[in-house]
Fold these 2 entries.
Entry 1:
Amino acid sequence: MDQERQRHYPPLPVMPKHVGIIMDGNGRWALQRGRRRLAGHRAGVENLRHVLSAAVELGVPILTLYAFSTENWSRPEAEIRGLMRLLSEALEKEVDELHRNGVQLRHVGELSPLSDILKEKIQAAVALTRHNSRLIANIAFNYGGRQEITTAIRSIIRAGIPAAEVTEDVVAEHLYTADMPDLDLVIRTSGEYRISNFMLWQSAYAEYYISPLYWPDFDKDEFYRALQCFAQRDRRYGGLKDA
Ligand code: IPE
Ligand code: IPE
Ligand code: MG
């Protein structure tokens, strides 16, 4: 810790406004150590605290963390129950400190299938921290990109918006991230090269950084490396570089 404190992270010429992290590899981290997958999830939650502090220190304004996908319901029941319990415990233990540190917690995804207790804890954390502005941390829990777009289409139709008036802006306004900028950078840990239904709309022009580290090992150094790498990217958005 002291060592990390002494390490210097020079300011970068360009910073992403919005970073998404696909926190992957908890299970493999645990199995590699001869432990059960849930031990990996526990280590992953512990690491989340460090990464949230690192985001504040490095100056990332908005972070979206993929914690449980709509596809993760297909895992064994015991693992799902364990993941729900870990989120519930983390909210109980960490929210006060996150609040003191100026973190605004938000939830993206569908709350209705979650237990009443978990729903209430999430809503309470969101309500408590809503005026904070040092870091916006979106927790994507029971989140799926296709589900998000489907829900947006439904609410556009329900609002009676005529087809000719459905623009890209209208669609964006009906997503969970309505008031937020698109993702600039998506980081995926554990060396997997896929999107796994994460923020399909918002990542249309995101830059990608694949870290070989399993999520419990992803630290401030590696986060900084991802940001350095982002700062060197040449983003063209389909256009051409100035001659
Ligand atoms: C990421 O770790 C956490 C969730 C998807 C809930 P995994 O559980 O996917 O870990 P691996 O990919 O099996 O190692
Ligand atoms: C993506 O990881 C979802 C989260 C990190 C929450 P998965 O482990 O579920 O994705 P796949 O199965 O490798 O695509
Ligand atoms: Mg995985």
Entry 2:
Amino acid sequence: MTDPAAGVPDRPRVVLGVAGGIAAYKAASLLRLFTESGHDVRVVPTRSALQFVGAPTWEALSGQPVSTEVFADVHEVPHVRLGQQADLVVVAPATADLLAKAAHGLADDLLTNTLLTARCPVVLAPAMHTEMWEHAATQANVETLRSRGVVVIEPAAGRLTGSDTGKGRLPEPDELFAACRALLDAPTQDLAGLHVVVSAGGTREFLDPVRYLGNRSSGRQGIAIAQAALARGATVRLVAANVSVPLPAGVDVVEVVTTAELQAAVVDAARSADVVVMAAAPADFRPADVSGHKIKKRDDGRTPVIELVENPDILAGLVRDRTGDATPFVVGFAAETGDADGSVADHARAKLERKGCELLVVNDVSDGKVFGQDDNEAVILGSDGAEVAVPRGPKSALAHAVWDEVVRRSGRRNVTP
Ligand code: CTP
């Protein structure tokens, strides 16, 4: 994006739509996040949005004129231009009414006209009461929009407008901003219409009510995989096991603790998934018995002996139980060290064969560096013999490299949102 006349990079153009819900006030913070990081933002509220936050607020914060109507500044043809020129359109909050209009192509104000003319990624962040969100009409509209490549962010659960709580809150502005940035950075919308499942984090196996066996996985890489998929247009279910970083907006999160819970959640979600990425580190073993009370130190100085039993291999089970059309496409991860029996590459190839998945993302953890870090390097092995080295870089870069390999093998093309 370069403006040849000025010789300086153009600022990303964002249209921030605001529909008429109480969460409109949060859009002011989202607007600040965009403007302060160099985005050129036009705010397009609906008429009812102005009942909640007035035009002067939007004009002052964006430094741009604000109108709800197609008949303002007609000589500039804003109802066509805004959508055509935008790099991203985000509507936060999106009401049930706005979702319905967008799904059916209605265009009775500037925002709905802009949604029809946009050829860039479109993000809708719904916020409404739980009953409205769960209504069959709203869910059908969301399904329609997602099938067209629109990113519909899952609402958060928590306190709603009155004293009631439930699903329907607008995610926090910084989470929405992160989801929008990921979309602006995403190469394409080539995962539009796909349902993907990503597991992340490390499972815990309890010895007694307070102690567990666990591992060092933070969940960062799995979360980066989920965010990248969302940004490329997929609908994402994240199965999160004890992750130590914030959960991303826009993905449907199921939280689990043990390997058995992880298995149940992944197998359930995999039934309707096109792709499953097993980035989680499930504990391979669990105590044979879980004590119902805290295990005490003994007076005679003898220490407890803990017998372990093996946990099921979730990844291998997913591959084994696939139907004839070989869906879902399965991606595994492997943290390997070289030893007397072979190099990292030897162990990784053998693991790919053993597991039977399509891709295996291999980290060399000989020096323990991967855990909890912001960057990563890996080799992606394919069951077709491919070997793609991804140099050290942010976990988001590895995430996109993994999706590039998935797309290459599934024959998908760039899809215009
Ligand atoms: N995995 C799984 N279920 C398990 C253990 C691992 O689904 N019980 C998945 C992980 O999510 C990862 C892949 O299998 O995608 C490889 O994990 P890893 O721990 O390296 O493999 P293991 O089969 O446990 O092999 P190893 O004997 O080397 O530990």
